[in-house]
Design a protein that fits this description.
The chain has eight helices and six strands, in the order E-H-H-H-E-H-H-E-E-E-E-H-H-H. The longest helix has 22 residues. InterPro entries: HOTDOG_ACOT, HotDog_dom_sf.
Length: about 325
């Protein structure tokens, strides 16, 4: 699972598209928006997940019987539009003080790791909404492949104002889906943008052993067409990045020069020895800015497929990275 974060400012055009999807997609205008507990309850119902650890083996055996419901080819599945997967979810931090306690950090701001957990759960539900079929339980096992991008409009999130998440599928391949999600926070009577996130999800069979086909996506109008093309460009970028990986390609000339310069800058000119190194000004050794974490996982950390919840791992990775950055600074 990969995580990349980019910080931007301003209000992107994607929020305008979200408002248009809101008028046509799944809405809860007659009642209260569902919260994250409702999201996770819905996910458990969709896949038939066990609610007790004691019966998780039976639940997984029952999922194997859903293999026959998988599509043999993508063309057998009905096409969907972006509005079909549009979802809004509430995180009522302002109106529920007990919930707020779960999200607070020591600086009295919202823990970003908790937000990553919520985005991960929401992204999976959005994909299941896109692939919804007539059967009560889905044969698909949808998992997070990577977090492609997170654009932050605000670096500090207030803990005492309600939050709203929106999202929908923005691009579809054969067995993968790109999900666009937006987080907004209520200030006064207006929701203002906090972040935009792009996740990539993949569909697997009920036993999570092989890829499974998902419904194709048909853009409706120029805005959606542009969003779909962005998804295609993102896919090509990821393929190019994977092709240029150090696991497949030798370092470039520029990369070799950077490493060589680092070596020369730490070499003791008096001894010219690998054993004698000099720390440049305003620097620390890499090994002195390294932290490790150990987490013993229990059934409480499992996801709907009885594996470790990816959002939990993202939160732990982010918080370890945050602590490492603090030790460096």
């Amino acid at each position: 699972m990969l995580l990349a974060v980019r910080c931007l400012s301003g209000c992107p055009a994607s929020h305008l598209l979200s408002r248009s999807l809101m008028t046509a997609g799944t809405m809860y205008s007659k009642g209260q928006l569902p919260d994250m507990n409702a999201v996770r309850d819905t996910l458990r119902a969709i896949v038939g997940a066990s609610t007790n650890w004691s019966d998780h083996v039976q639940a997984m055996e029952e999922r194997k019987s859903l293999q026959s419901l998988l599509a043999k080819k993508q063309e057998d599945l009905p096409a969907r539009k972006m509005k079909d997967s549009y979802i809004e979810v509430s995180l009522p931090l302002g109106s529920q003080p007990q919930l707020r306690e779960k999200y607070l950090n020591v600086y009295n701001n919202v823990r970003f790791g908790r937000i990553l957990e919520d985005l991960d759960s929401l992204g999976v539900l959005i994909c299941y909404t896109h692939t919804k079929a007539e059967s009560d339980k889905t044969p698909l096992s949808i998992v997070t492949a990577l977090v492609d991008k997170i654009d932050l409009q605000k670096h500090l999130i207030s803990p005492d104002c309600d939050i709203k998440f929106t999202g929908h599928v923005s691009w579809v391949g054969k067995t993968s889906m790109e999900v666009k999600m937006h987080m907004l926070q209520l200030h006064g009577d207006v929701y203002s943008p906090v972040l935009d996130a792009t996740f990539v999800m993949v569909a697997r069979d009920p036993e999570n052993k092989r890829p499974a086909y998902v419904n194709p996506l048909v853009p409706d109008g120029p805005e959606e067409e542009n969003l779909f093309q962005q998804g295609e460009s993102n896919k090509m970028r990821r393929v190019a990045f994977s092709t240029a990986s150090l696991l497949k390609m030798a370092p470039t000339g520029e990369e070799r020069n950077i490493v060589h310069d680092l070596f020369l800058n730490t070499l003791d000119s008096r001894t010219v020895s690998f054993r004698s190194r000099i720390l440049p000004p305003n620097s620390i050794w890499m090994e002195d800015a390294k932290l490790k974490g150990l987490e013993i996982c229990h059934p409480q950390q499992r996801n709907i497929f009885n594996r470790i919840f990816g959002g939990f791992l993202m939160r732990k990775a982010y918080e370890l990275g945050w602590a490492t950055a603090c030790s460096y600074g």
